[in-house]
Amino acid sequence: MDQRYATHPDQIAGLDTQALRDTFLVERLFVPGQVTAVYTHHDRIVLAGAVPAGTPLPLEAFPELRAEHFLQNREAGIINVGGAGTVTADGETYPMAKGACLYLGRGVRDVVFADDDVDADVDVEEGGAQFYLFSAPAHTTYPTVLAQPGEGTVRELGDQLTSNRRTLTQLIHADGIRSCQIVMGFTTLHPGSMWNTMPAHTHDRRTECYLYFDVPADARVLHVCGEPEETRHLVVADRQAVISPSWSVHSGVGTASYSFVWAMAGENQAFDDMDAVPVAALR
Q1: CATH number of this structure's domain 11-281
Q2: Can you tell me the distance from the alpha carbon of 82 to that of 125, in angstroms, rounded to the nearest whole number?
Q3: Is 92 labeled as ligand-binding?
Q4: Residue pLDDT, tens place only, 236-264
């Protein structure tokens, strides 16, 4: 488990490209045959990628959590961004196609990630399951819930004229799958649209993380971060994640259309609790 410590906005001005990437970008989260995790001290969020690659993978309690099992004091949302797979939680197996979302509440002990056919010799590049996990501390327990692809609250946003026509699917939120503090879903850009989340905004009461996926191999997303008046950018590839502190804007433009999982945790679960920044005010 990699650890990323909390940051102050004044640090942005002094970071060069590599330091910016080391602080906010998670470049290698999906490693075949492993559960790879990053712990950020911003709202004590954990990001993890699980790639079974033909061998079932248990979710262990990392020593940094000081817990008997991973979800002893936490909850998690899991979205499959790869081929068909399953997640088994305390003995019950949940089938997860690409785009399915599973919420696991505080207290679930045993979690195992697997490909759909555990006996097959799976090639990750050719369609093996790839699970993205977003976890935050939880003070109460909510039941395990599975949302299949096509379920959830769908919002059509943006306009083709401004290159940001996109479909946003809310999965874990106050009017959907209930959680202690996680809000989670994903957004898919329509063909010909490249901008996400415009106008840019901050969440002064929440940390948000983006996982970009379905980014073509020869394409990249320029993710805008930093304070509105002191922006920087990260060049992001497929299946890389960005940690966005409460004081940072989070927006981006791709060289091709793409999708991204957005997830946040913090003071509240109000989706529209954001401080928009007019495009003309960005610097």
Answers
A1: 2.60.120.10
A2: 9
A3: no
A4: 999 999 999 999 999 999 999 999 999 99
